[in-house]
Amino acid sequence: MGAEVIERYDALTRYCGSLGHDVPFGYCRSVQGGLPCRRTADCWNEALPVRRFLEEHYTEEQRAAIFAPSKPKLTSILEIVERAKRRSQVP
Amino acid sequence: MAVKVFLSEDEIPRQWYNLAADLPSPMQPPLGPDGKPISPDMLAPVFPMNLIEQEVSTERWIDIPEGVLELLYRWRPSPLHRAVHLEKALDTPARIYYKNESVSPPGSHKPNTAVAQAWYNKQFGIKRITTETGAGQWGSALAFACSLLGLECKVYMVRISFEQKPFRKLMMQTWGANCVASPSTETQAGRDILAKFPDTPGSLGIAISEAVEAAVTDQSGETRYSLGSVLNHVLLHQTIIGLEAKKQLKKAGVKKVDTVIGCCGGGSNFAGLSFPFVADKIAGEQIDIIPVEPTSCPTMTRAPFVYDHGDTAKMTPLLPMHSLGHDFIPPPIHAGGLRYHGMAPLISQAIVEGLLAPRAIHQLECYAAAVQFAQTEGIIIAPETSHAVAAVVQEAKKAKEEGKEKVILFNMSGHGLMDLTGYDAYFQGKLQDYSLPDVEMEKSLKSIDGLPKPQLVKTGKW
Q: What pLDDT, on the 0 to 100 scale, is given for residue A78?
């Protein structure tokens, strides 16, 4: 899947259930620190050969990171607290 | 025939109802990686202790402070409508009632907890509240609440939403909130991301990190974070919906409710209407209580009750909930509030007990019901609310087939005037139904094969 195809895909838009409005594919495939949103495969599977795209462009390890689901709220908040405390201790 | 039933301000319920007190089987606590429950102290940097106390409370009734009631009077008690025009269109013998939560200034049920949380924060000496938002439904509710109390409100709005959805951003600004695009340069989390990806459009995960960091690193100790869904105290504050409905139904001469329905994502609007009726069911009444979810993401209707890790690395705490496994990738559905991986623990346990009868409905059926509701009752509902309306239509048709004059109550949790793109996609024929195939479900559940199974505590009464 070449750069031209990706560029064409990037311009397509679709409703994002998380954010509550339309977003382009280019957003979905780069939202997690350059990696795709974990929902990309499902949100786009009716519009693009998205699973093929993911298999061709990301390693198995990256795909595992991509598809890690959101955590329970309380859990993820506590993790963020720990990260924020660590950051604030770094000079 | 009266199509609306009102309560006066002096008839407003003065206590919230806490289902945790009455669940016949006890709630199982969230566990940390070490297998120990998360303690209130761990949450203290994030939430004020008065809200943490509510989060862990098992008291049945919790007084609504006069100060909170005075805030709620701005739009509460909300009206109870009789959907006579929908009944007529469906030619059903059922009587359909709904609580209209779209009458709040921001247009949804979310201010019920936003004003309570803001008030408790102020009582605790907090001067500033932070939160995150996407398109801005929760952010606008909290901005509104803070404006009523003279609190500073800082909303980290995902940059792409900030740029593409100006109207809720303007609502927040109008209510005096400081709404910034996330990632911002105001937090270390934001600066780190911007250093690596200067042009990033942001994400909800980054926005949450910024909002929590802004709260916990404020050296004055006068800042806390606020969340609008899932947690017990959020569900508690929403129970005013169902408590009002009970009084209004009595005024309308309704002696018995047969069916209670709400859409169920994080669970707050469903819990808000239904938990007071779950109490009646526990006490012996015959009521069908139906949380409705999308067929494409069957968290409640097809998943087993398990302990599930939050991540594939299995480093995060285990939480008992209905789950599709940590490898589950939710499929597409056009309802922003209905995509949670796990359900609120209180609701999970009520399902285990058999007190709730979850139902899944395809999105095309939901939009068809939403359009029918708009063309009969006149209100354009939020996409997630359409799940509840679709279930109401199913129940009303069933009543017609059975020739039963049953009473159906549902929660009209918000209007959809800021979320019309889903309707546009429906009208243009762009939406498709999708349900999780059994083979995908089995594959997903294999990932939790080796995890400890929670003790399935149930009384077997329901």
A: 87
